[in-house]
């Protein structure tokens, strides 16, 4: 199965800018389907970006984050060719992890 995470990381000088798009339904548990039944909550709870074994961005999310979330941030460090590790865990225990080379 292909990863649900698409990442682009670019280094310019001392800063690395990261943009990521994650495919996930992010159901809050407050929305009904076409039959009028409540869709159970299903959302990403923990999101982590690691560079050189250290977290450079971490988030604890709830059901208020929109479907297919987009994340953009920058951190000091990172060189072209180095790897960035991205992982998430959702409310049903599912996980996904991917790596991206810094460009």
TrEMBL record:
Gene3D superfamilies according to UniProt: Immunoglobulins (2.60.40.10)
Signal peptide segment: none
Highest taxon, organism lineage: Bacteria
Pfam families assigned: SoxZ
Domain Sulphur oxidation protein SoxZ: start-end pairs: 6-100
Ranges in a coiled coil: none
InterPro entries, per the entry: Ig-like_fold (IPR013783), Ig_E-set (IPR014756), SoxZ (IPR030995), SoxZ_dom (IPR014880)
Protein name, as recorded: Thiosulfate oxidation carrier complex protein SoxZ
